[in-house]
Structure to design on (753 residues):
């Protein structure tokens, strides 16, 4: 086949080429982390599709990497952000701190496993959610495929938190990212993400994500205070005292030193 | 109240000749079971399929069963007929507000005011006729200038008349008149058989002979005397039911009758520009305790397909009802429908900048999702979040009932200045401690703290706690506190 034949084929038949995935044509929601955005097709979380976040344990900042995107979605769209059976209560003051509009947040707690998938699928395809976040325990590949289709229909960002052990299995999700703690960051101001599935490109190398939030504000170390027991006040006595005596002012940290 | 004095009046009477049968079994093309209604042990009314196989009114039940074993019989129920007539009057309210109930089986409608809306009598009759056919009622319509003559025309099946009432009555045989049978006999023996002859007689003589009620009836019939009608008040209350010929054991087959009842509800609501936010179905059987379920909607609505879908979701959950012979639908709480006029400039370059129309559709979708979730999972399973003004972490948030959101954004009044975890444990979990330091199956290293929360000593739930941010040896970051009252460590949140 000569070069001109090839060119002809390219131009006339609309042949699909992997290199032609133009990241600009994929609708995406910026993650808020520049380094991560650079690695993702469309420079952000896929705005319609399933994203899998794989982690060994909870509490490593896995929800925090979503909050900038959720804050963006809650202000740019009037649709819901739905948490389906979160393992604990998403804490309203912390969500507000992250800039998420609480008026858009919805929590749903289905009781049975059947209802659980039903809710996720219907919410994804309903077109009335901008993001659906779920923690499915034992979800099957074919079920994720259905959710992926539903997310496409509903133009919705679907996020599934799954254990790290499933990273070796194939998944129809559009984007899969492994998350782990950063060994050298003592205070969890950083996390390591590794994209293991994305459109048009291979696995990424480790990406270091720095959290620039209040959690890592330097604070004086008061931990030696721990060694002195707290002198409990008699709460009952205070409750029944009309006039508060000066001595009964709440103790301050100063008094303990 | 209205009078029939004016010559412009047009009265339409809807007469339901098969009403006694139709309260038990409405007509439909698929309905083949012969049904008869008995009165004093004799067949009095029957449905078309019973008529077709040759059952006659007045024959005994044994005769009917000899003709066909399948015949289903019901005892006549006047109360049910009146209820059904009231429902039909409420249904007819969508055409005109002036509806009168004439027991036992007729409605009289003043349609003079709605000729323009329906573009003529023909269109009005067609839409009423097709509506009733869908509901499964056989109707005979009569049109005349006075209420009573319209009733007479409907019962006698006479053609429409828009001329003078008196002239039109000429050819009507007198046995159709609503008068005492003795008077009819007396008139017959005088050789009077048509209204024309009757109306030529002097009123004084008739008055003396047959009493004032008879002449009063005649003058109201002809329109010489005003005939005020008592119209139904629009009482927004919806009741309708379907009785099944044979017991229904498969609940899935209730979907079709359910759809029909919801269609009636929708017509009822459309006629009054109303919406509902809840309605209930009652599934009953003569030998079981009836079962009721209520469908709640997040927002008032009038949308039959959605009603049906939500009802089906609830129906699927019922599993302890072996059989059903009656399905009833009721709705009592109504809301004024918001006017649903579209944007005149929608789709043009003059379209409103805020895209109102678009947003309305979006809201409808959001409402639909909430409706579906609450119908399937129960009203408690879905909630929103809001921040509360309290320093105690477990009281600094509260679940919120979802109403018309997500329409407006909610800005918290104040932001918590200190760091808070994204996940909060519903109940703090006690940690073990070694040498006054907390442990959680591994070492916990304190990163930040303490943040003292000493609050609520004036109410029944005082807290005195020092909060720390701690990092577990596995890398997770926790929010823990030292309860100052009992010197114990607790885990309260996860920096997820």
């Amino acid at each position: 086949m000569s070069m001109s034949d090839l060119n002809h084929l390219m131009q006339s038949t609309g042949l699909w080429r992997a290199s032609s995935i133009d990241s600009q044509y994929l609708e995406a929601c910026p993650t808020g982390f520049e380094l991560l955005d650079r690695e993702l097709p469309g420079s952000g979380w896929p705005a319609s599709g399933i994203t899998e976040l794989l982690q060994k344990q909870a509490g490593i900042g896995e929800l925090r990497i979503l909050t900038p995107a959720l804050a963006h979605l809650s202000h740019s769209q009037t649709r819901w952000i739905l948490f389906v059976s979160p393992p604990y209560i998403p804490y309203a003051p912390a969500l507000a701190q992250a800039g998420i509009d609480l008026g858009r947040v919805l929590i749903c707690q289905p009781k049975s496993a059947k209802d659980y998938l039903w809710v996720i699928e219907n919410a994804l395809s309903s077109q009335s959610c901008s993001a659906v976040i779920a923690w499915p325990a034992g979800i099957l590949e074919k079920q994720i495929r259905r959710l992926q289709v539903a997310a496409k229909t509903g133009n919705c960002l679907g996020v599934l938190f799954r254990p790290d052990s499933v990273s070796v299995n194939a998944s129809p999700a559009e984007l899969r990212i492994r998350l782990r703690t950063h060994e050298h960051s003592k205070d969890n101001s950083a996390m390591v993400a590794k994209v293991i599935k994305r459109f048009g490109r291979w696995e990424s190398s480790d990406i270091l994500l720095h959290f620039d939030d209040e959690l890592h504000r330097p604070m004086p170390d008061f931990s030696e205070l721990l060694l002195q027991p707290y002198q409990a006040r008699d709460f009952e006595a205070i409750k029944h005292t009309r006039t508060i005596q000066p001595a009964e002012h709440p103790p301050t940290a100063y008094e303990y030193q | 109240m209205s009078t029939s004095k004016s010559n412009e009046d047009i009265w339409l009477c809807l007469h339901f000749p098969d009403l006694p049968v139709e309260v038990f079994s409405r007509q439909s093309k698929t309905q083949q079971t012969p049904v008869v209604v008995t009165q004093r042990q004799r067949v009095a009314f029957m449905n078309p399929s019973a008529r077709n196989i040759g059952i006659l009114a007045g024959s005994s039940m044994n005769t009917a069963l000899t003709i066909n074993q399948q015949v289903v019989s019901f005892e006549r129920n006047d109360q049910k007929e009146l209820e059904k007539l009231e429902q039909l009057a409420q249904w007819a309210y969508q055409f005109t507000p002036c509806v009168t109930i004439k027991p036992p089986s007729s409605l009289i409608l003043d349609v003079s005011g709605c000729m323009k809306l329906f573009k003529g009598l023909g269109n009005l009759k067609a839409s009423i006729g097709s509506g009733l056919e869908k509901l499964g009622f056989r109707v005979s319509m009569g049109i005349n200038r006075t209420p009573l003559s319209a009733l007479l025309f409907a019962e006698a099946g006479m053609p429409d008349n828009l001329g003078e009432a008196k002239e039109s009555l000429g050819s009507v045989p007198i046995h159709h008149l609503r008068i005492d049978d003795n008077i009819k006999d007396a008139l017959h023996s005088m050789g009077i058989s048509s209204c024309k002859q009757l109306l030529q007689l002097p009123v004084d003589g008739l008055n003396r002979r047959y009493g004032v009620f008879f002449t009063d009836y005649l003058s109201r019939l002809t329109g010489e005397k005003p005939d005020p009608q008592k119209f139904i008040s629009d009482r927004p209350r919806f009741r309708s039911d379907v009785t099944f010929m044979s017991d229904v054991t498969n609940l899935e087959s209730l979907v079709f009758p359910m759809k029909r009842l919801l269609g009636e509800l929708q017509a009822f609501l459309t006629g009054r520009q109303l919406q509902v936010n809840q309605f209930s179905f009652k599934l009953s059987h003569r030998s079981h305790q009836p079962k009721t379920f209520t469908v709640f909607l997040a927002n008032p609505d009038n949308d039959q397909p959605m009603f049906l879908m939500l009802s089906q979701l609830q129906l699927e959950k019922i599993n302890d009802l072996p059989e059903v012979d009656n399905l009833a639908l009721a709705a009592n709480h109504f809301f004024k429908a918001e006017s649903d006029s579209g944007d005149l400039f929608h789709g043009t370059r003059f379209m409103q900048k805020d895209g109102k129309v678009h947003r309305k559709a979006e809201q409808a979708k959001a409402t639909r999702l909430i409706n579906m979730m609450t119908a399937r999972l129960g009203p408690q399973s879905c909630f929103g979040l809001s921040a509360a003004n309290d320093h105690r972490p477990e009281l600094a948030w509260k679940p919120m009932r979802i109403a018309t959101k997500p329409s407006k954004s909610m800005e918290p009044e104040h932001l918590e200045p200190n760091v808070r975890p994204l996940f909060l444990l519903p109940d703090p979990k006690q940690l073990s401690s070694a040498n006054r330091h907390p442990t959680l199956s591994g070492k916990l290293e304190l990163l930040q703290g303490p943040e003292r929360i000493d609050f609520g000593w004036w109410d029944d739930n005082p807290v005195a706690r020092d909060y720390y941010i701690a990092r577990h040896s596995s890398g997770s970051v926790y929010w823990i506190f030292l309860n100052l009252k009992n010197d114990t460590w607790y885990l309260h949140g996860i920096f997820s």
Summary: Residues 237-257 of chain A have pLDDT under 50 and may be disordered. The helical segments of chain A are 3-13, 34-39, 67-76, 92-97, 113-125, 141-154, 235-239. The first helix of chain A runs from residue 3 to 13.
